[in-house]
Specification:
The protein has 657 residues and is an alpha+beta fold. The strands form 3 sheets. It has a 15-stranded mixed sheet, sandwiched between helices. Strands 16, 17, 18, 19, 20, 29, 30, 31 and 32 form a 9-stranded mixed sheet that branches. The chain has an 8-stranded parallel sheet with strand order 21-22-23-24-25-26-27-28. The longest helix has 23 residues. The radius of gyration is 25 Å and the shape is globular. The termini are far apart. InterPro entries: Amidohydro-rel, Metal-dep_hydrolase_composite, Metal_Hydrolase, Metallo-dep_Hydrolase. It holds the Pfam family Amidohydro_1. One of its GO terms (molecular function) is hydrolase activity, acting on carbon-nitrogen (but not peptide) bonds. It comes from Streptomyces griseoruber.
Length: 657
């Protein structure tokens, strides 16, 4: 993308790798033209925007045309006439009459953060937003970029999404960079300083999360007793009568009948209100970032399996979470190995040769990774040797099905587990030569409507998995979201939490992700998703291990993944056993985790209701304990700008901390 005369050119980075470009042209003093294009992991947005601003830096006309992340068409409009603003987007149509507000575009480029900053600064530090919410801006600090004597102002924007955004402006008041959750938009004349800005974002994020941790962590030197609760036993698949559970120094010390339990002087006593206590949940498919720890703990997820990351970043994050410097679950890492292609995912290690791929396996083994994960662009001919070396070193082998091969061949090559239900199903519905390094790996599921699960191809794969003990990391929730999300509609899966979220996040959830030309195209997705649940039930009935993962980071999707298991036909008790004890055992943690038993790690959650009667009760979380550290979701969600879903339990006795 070439910068036009009088325009500014920006580079877009993800996980430290350049994968996009943005050009903004000032057509007139108050009219901007923005072109943005990204290509990362075979997908990415391509957008053309035209924006008119008033004398308060508020958009009075805004058009967005192009395609979103997965290729869905974008046609978005804002206009203002007098005191009335009218807009139309994938998320909704609306109008507002009165004092003009800042419109938050639903499908837009990162340049929108600069527009948002300017509007908030012009308004004195905060500005009301459309369709709802309020944006605030604060000058945090000044810095200089390496070799530049002129200072750069660092601002923090809050209220746009789930996390703070950082925006940098130079001494002339020009936009320099946007930093947000590992993504960077950086003016071209500073693009060689991307690593410096990555370090700056890490520093700012660390400070923010350390401050949050100081406000939400509850740690006691005395034993903590949770009384008046029922305990889920994953071995018997039952709830006990009223119990009293005590933990101290990170370990469960007693589990006894409430009627005969005796509180000891000096204990912290928490009234469970007749709720249910169960071991901490697992997300078996995560790609964790520093902010994700808050979301996971608030959702009762105390252990996650990271399925691919920037390796140095992940190791640093694990140390901070393990030491409770910031809040986050325990993490079991997977070593990401990708092949080199124009569609490569920019994570982990990308070897150029088979010897380099074998060295990557050894690199992960030496650092105590649990397994290797193979990705879409890997040469399938290398997989048998990689799997043999991984198994020799005690690592498991999991992954996507590389392009132009099949699940059956990869299982034969040494896979211990297939990643994503769609990756498994593609082996039954794709034609030879179709390229799964592209969004086809998701959009092809529209063909699943006509899939015969009794066919020879399906039954052959199921038998191979059953005989070999091959599991499936399902991530059905992300498949549901991509297949069934529709513009201007709240997906039923999102309904329990979406209204509690910031306006910007709500709008991102109310849009169509898959490309479609007709209503018939969308209908095929609607009619195909039930087949995904039928596959899950088929595998479960055949004794094939299922591992609930999300490929998301909000925690809410863990709850939905478990609900989908129940919708597929598993009993709530079976679902909870998988989410607690079975996952812990699969990760090699079963001796210390997965059940409420004396001597096990005190990682647990307290919920209102009976999840064996209604699996959705797992959403009603009042307290979470991670290795003895206590967190109340009410406090976490307040810090995140999310309306809480529950109240913290009463603490009957609280000694000095």
């Amino acid at each position: 993308m070439n910068a036009a005369p009088g325009s500014d050119h920006y580079a877009y980075f993800s996980a430290g790798v350049r994968c996009g470009d943005l050009t903004v042209t000032a057509a007139t003093a108050d009219r901007l033209i923005v072109d943005f294009a990204v290509s990362n992991n075979g997908r990415g947005a391509r957008l053309h925007e035209e924006i008119n601003l008033d004398d308060r830096a508020l958009p009075i006309a805004w058009s967005v045309e192009g395609t979103s992340l997965m290729g869905a068409a974008v046609h978005e409009r804002l206009s203002a006439e007098g005191t009335t603003q009218t807009w139309s987007s994938q998320a909704e149509e609306g109008s507002h009459t009165g004092n003009r507000r800042l419109y938050l575009a639903a499908d837009t480029s990162p340049y929108a953060h600069w527009i948002t900053l300017q509007a908030a600064l012009t308004a004195g530090g905060s500005v009301d937003a459309l369709p709802s919410g309020q944006i605030t801006v604060e000058l945090l600090d000044q810095t200089t970029l390496d070799g530049d004597r002129n200072p750069v102002d660092i601002y923090v924007l809050r209220g746009v999404g789930l996390t703070p955004d950082y925006v940098l402006a130079d001494h002339e008041g020009r936009f320099v960079a946007w930093l947000g959750s590992g993504q960077t938009l950086l003016r071209e004349d500073h693009s060689d300083r991307q690593r410096e800005l990555d370090a700056l974002e890490t520093h700012l994020t660390d400070l923010h999360l350390e401050q949050v941790q100081s406000r939400i962590l509850h740690r006691y030197s005395a034993p903590v007793r949770i009384r008046n609760v029922r305990v889920f036993d994953p071995r018997t698949l039952t709830l006990t009568a009223s119990q009293s559970v005590t933990f101290h120094r990170g370990r469960i010390t007693t589990v006894e009948a409430d009627a005969t339990a005796h509180a000891v002087a000096g204990e912290v006593v928490i009234d469970g209100g007749g709720g249910t206590v169960l071991a901490g949940l697992h997300d078996m498919h995560a790609h964790v970032r520093p902010i994700d720890g808050l979301f996971y703990l608030a959702a009762g997820v105390t252990t996650v399996r990271d399925m691919g990351n920037a390796n140095d970043t992940l190791m640093r994050l694990l140390e901070r979470w393990d030491d409770s410097v910031t809040a986050g679950p325990a993490v079991v890492p997977s070593g990401f190995i990708e092949g080199r292609s124009e569609h490569s995912a920019l994570l982990g290690i990308i070897p150029e040769t088979l010897p380099q791929a074998l060295d990557a396996v050894r690199w992960y083994a030496a650092r105590d990774y649990h397994q290797i994960k193979i990705y879409n662009s890997m040469n399938p001919e290398w997989v048998p040797a990689m799997a043999e070396e991984a198994h020799r070193l005690g690592l498991r082998v999991v992954g996507h099905i590389p392009a132009f091969t099949t699940p059956d061949r990869m299982i034969e090559a040494g896979y211990d587990e297939v990643t994503h239900v769609n990756q498994l199903m593609l082996g039954w519905i794709l034609d030879d030569g179709e390229d799964t390094r592209t969004p086809l790996r998701l959009t092809a599921l529209a063909r699943a409507r006509d899939l015969d699960l009794g066919s020879e191809a399906v039954q052959q794969t199921v038998k191979r998995m059953r005989d070999g003990g091959i599991g499936l990391d399902t991530t059905a929730v992300i498949v549901e979201r991509l297949m069934l999300s529709r513009a201007r509609t709240v997906l039923p899966a999102d309904a329990p939490f979406l209204s509690h979220m910031p306006a910007g996040y709500q709008r991102r959830r109310k849009r169509t992700y898959v490309p479609s030309r007709t209503e018939e195209d969308l209908l095929r997705y609607d009619e195909s998703f039930p087949k995904v649940l039928e596959v899950i039930k088929l595998l479960h009935d055949n004794g094939i291990p299922l591992w609930p993962g999300t490929d998301d980071s909000t925690g809410f999707t863990v709850h939905r993944e478990l609900e989908l298991y129940a919708e597929a036909g598993l009993s709530p008790a079976e679902v909870l056993r998988i989410a607690t004890l079975d996952c812990a055992a699969h990760l090699g943690l079963g001796h210390n985790h997965g059940a409420i038993e004396r001597g096990k790690t005190a990682s647990l959650l307290l919920i209102d209701g009976d999840p064996l009667t209604d699996i959705s009760a797992i959403r009603n979380i009042r307290m979470v304990v991670k290795a003895g550290d206590i967190y109340f979701p009410e406090e976490i969600y307040t810090e995140l700008g999310i309306t809480p879903f529950s109240t913290a339990p009463a603490i009957d006795q609280e000694p000095t901390r």
